[in-house]
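Could someone model zinc ion with this protein?
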Amino acid sequence: MPIQQFDDDFENLPVQSTTKSAAAAAPAVSTKTHTQKPVENEEEETPKPKVSDDEDLATDFDDEKVYARTGQLNQCRPDKGKAARFAFIPKDWFAPQTAKNHFIETLDGKDVKKGRYRCLTPMGANAEPQFCCVAVDKDGDVEVVALVVRYTNADPVSGKYVKDAEGNWPPIEFEIQFVRLSQFNMRQIKKLPDEDSDPFKIDIVMTNAEGRAFGYEFNRKSNAPRWMGDQAKIDEVKAAAQKFIKDNGRKLRSKLGQKLNLTEWKALLSKRVGESKIENLEEL
Ligand SMILES: [Zn+2]
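Reply:
Sure, complex below.
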């Protein structure tokens, strides 16, 4: 009976003093009860208040919250014909992240699976092409992902905020999201601020590129990020951003594609059916 043996030795173990005194103060009972919950934890059952269910639970197919998942990092991008207004979070909170990726289609059972996978070739112009680039006969694409403050109550078409009848700006509503940028997008955004400013100090409106089947355009909407208007909002944004900053930005970094070693790359490419076209990458 090894367990009872343990209980017999209980008093001699270097346990916390509270436990010891409780055990000492306890009346002589069988060793069995020593291991059970103290009696004072068994609270009397209090009658539960009757919860009224008159909350407004109405929804619709445009209702964002139906599609949101708790803790999910959503992508900042406009729907067709709409605008997405955002500002980058300060880079000293968490810097934008970059890596090269390949977009590979593999056969997963009967289904074609599209994936974004981290290129093995280091970034930079002088890097020696590694296995993945050689095998698919294409360089990895540079991508940047960054945490942004997405303004969720700016005008959905113009990205503007308009004053109310009393001449006040509406308080901003926001969500921390991530934006995915190509090399081309980076160049576009770099040009937006004034000379003495930088892309972290402006509000940007992202729209679908006109005359092209895919891609986005970026325009400056304000010379100062609207969310930085007051300290309370800054604190609120900072608190909301923390869950994506922690763990070295794990959630954001995962948007740069799956990291594979050479063996894993070989296994992946053995199931390859093609390379995803950029037009089809929106869902990735
Ligand atoms: Zn590569």
